Amino acid sequence: MASDVLPVPPALKTKLEKLGLVRHDDFILHLPIRYEDETSIVTVADALEGVPVQVEARVLDVSVQFRPRRQLVARVADSTGELVLRFLNFYGSQVKQLEQARDGDKLLRLFGEIRRGFLGAEMVHPRYRVVTAETPLPTSLTPVYPTTAGVSQAALRKLIGVALASSALDDSLDEGWCRRHALMPFSAAVRLLHAPPPDVEEAALQGRSHPAWRRVKFDEVLAQQLSLRRAYLARRQKGAPVLKADGSLRRRLLANLPFALTTAQQRVLAEIADDLAQPYPMQRLLQGDVGSGKTIVAALAACQAIEAGYQAAFMAPTEILAEQHYLKLRTWLEPFGVEVAWLTGSLRKAAKTASQSQAAGSAHLVVGTHALIQAGVDFARLGLAIVDEQHRFGVAQRLELRKKGGNPHQLMMSATPIPRTLAMSYYADLDVSVLDELPPGRTPIRTKLISDARRDQVIAGVRATVGEGRQVYWVCPLIEESEKLQLQTAIDTHAVLSAELAELRIGLVHGRLKPAEKAALMAEFVAGEIDVLVATTVIEVGVDVPNASLMVIEHAERFGLSQLHQLRGRVGRGAHDSTCVLLYQSPLSQTARSRLRIIFEHTDGFEIARQDLHLRGPGEFVGSRQSGVPLLRYADLEMDIDLVELARDLAERMLRDSPARAEAHLARWLGSREELLKA
């Protein structure tokens, strides 16, 4: 019965579906956001101001008043004092109902906050019921549920009551296992949460630390772990090209590099090489801080695919980043006879057709933007798909690239480090490799917070830096509402700096420039022919200019933490002392203040990511991954890390030893939504 659809009137059905309420289980797992205590009555004289209370009183008089505005006013009293009820929005039926409540033995049972008004103690828009002296009080706290327009609390309570009464609430977990891990039975937990007794520890209930909440949170995390783990195992049943090679191309590339791989790079490369030699598709997330050397690891992985007779595709989210990768990969690989093709949306038709033809034939490595997944692009024998800054692509886009090559191995890269709790929860379907070591020679970056009022000092600092033979980035504010406005700000800033620093060569790069213009400007900056590069966030990732030692980020309060960290990582890439100036405008909001403090105090991307998760919560943090994974409604990844670890261990065992229990658990929690996880 538990998975049956709950019968509801058609008018209500659509509104309930907005809340995700269709099956019995949906209603059972629609848990209160808070509770109200209607189990006792207080007198008017004893009621505390500003605290929700319940009183019972007789109606003395009712009137509709028109000054200062139209309102319904009723005077009520119990044996200890009087109270004024005020309704600013009301219906004619309410007037009639309150007038009728003056008759005989009728009482009003009111719930709300009492405050001092012009006419004494009053309640504004209290919840009320007409009762008699014999009407019993509730025996449990009253739940308040998340709802939507047109669905009243009373309707929700009634439907949830029906679902609870008509469902067996079987436990999907073994009773003995639950006892050993101090987890309440499922049935007892949900019944308590929907109707807590008056003597329940209210702080634990509201703070979601009560054992009943703990059981529900565990079940939710377990459903997520089971689903992701099952997707992981299902992928392992699929065939993929076995990319075995003798490593000669990789050895030649390594011998030609002006640097040696770090221990972390060697470790990660071994993990990837082992995956690529398996007959099932690799699904690995490579994460590493800014400058940890992910691109060379990807290039060496591509070498293995190429040597095995297959192609590799390298997709990046922006044209400027894709182009950086293309130029770097071509420099590294073309001397060894590797054909590297370039494919992006802005190519002219003839060039695009030529690139598409290369992808379908002779190219060993195809680098580009999301143009790689568009109709008309086919690969001859795609063995490895590499996705850079993977969190900036949607689930559907990543799937498209996989479909292009049948079932290639997939390497996803991210310079936004993912906190361990998120990796264990939202990325449980992936193997995760971490580059936790920076190459030698990276100089520490000083971070300075400077108010916009001291802009003149910052401009003087730019002049001094260029005087020492160094170069400067000046990043313009992020204006999400308007690309046009953002562009104008960059143009204005370029004009101001050109006037103030007339003796310097100042360039301007932004997203609206043609690719050839952008490439030419970047090439000039790399060659040292531009002293100061005014830019929008197109230089956020991938740009490597060792001589740039000063980064000024204007309106730093408008940027997210990971973006500030990425931008800061554009300097400190050479042997010179480097500084990142965060220019902010007062007054700062509390969130902006917190963000700037975190970026000022920390340089470790993993710690910044952990603090960012704490500030924003997992929903925002995982970005487009959200479209593939249902967000946790009840569990908190920081508070409940022990539950995530416990659920991860149990998920493995359940899928192996108790598949029927695992199936029942997933059906209860995810229903048809598990399809979302297949990406």
Could you walk me through the main structural features you see in this protein, from its secondary elements to its overall organization?
With about 675 residues, the protein is of the alpha/beta class. The chain folds into four domains: about 80 residues, no CATH class; about 100 residues, OB fold (Dihydrolipoamide Acetyltransferase, E2P) (Beta Barrel), CATH 2.40.50; about 190 residues, P-loop containing nucleotide triphosphate hydrolases (Rossmann fold, 3-Layer(aba) Sandwich); about 160 residues, Rossmann fold. Helices cover about 40% and strands about 20% of the residues. It has 24 helices and 21 strands. Strands 11-12-10-13-14-9-15 form a seven-stranded parallel sheet, with helices on both faces. Helix 19 links the parallel strand 20 and strand 21. Helix 8 packs across helix 24, helix 9 runs antiparallel to helix 11 and helix 23 packs across helix 24. The longest helix is centred in the N-terminal third of the chain and has 26 residues. About 0% of the residues have low confidence. One of its GO terms (biological process) is DNA repair.
User: How many β strands by DSSP?
Assistant: 21
- CATH second-level architecture of the largest domain: 3-Layer(aba) Sandwich
> Any idea of the CATH topology of the largest domain?
Rossmann fold
Largest sheet: 7 strands, parallel
| Largest beta sheet: strand ordering | 11-12-10-13-14-9-15
Looking at CATH, the homologous superfamily of the largest domain is P-loop containing nucleotide triphosphate hydrolases
CATH class of the largest domain: Alpha Beta
Helix % is: 25-40%
Strand portion, in percent? Answer: 15-25%
Low-confidence stretches: 623-629
Q: How many discrete structural domains? A: 4
Mean pLDDT across the residues is 86
Shape: globular
Rg estimate, integer Å: 31 Å
GO molecular function: 3'-5' DNA helicase activity; ATP binding; ATP hydrolysis activity; DNA binding
EC number: 5.6.2.4
Family: Belongs to the helicase family. RecG subfamily.
Catalytic activity: Couples ATP hydrolysis with the unwinding of duplex DNA by translocating in the 3'-5' direction; ATP + H2O = ADP + phosphate + H(+)
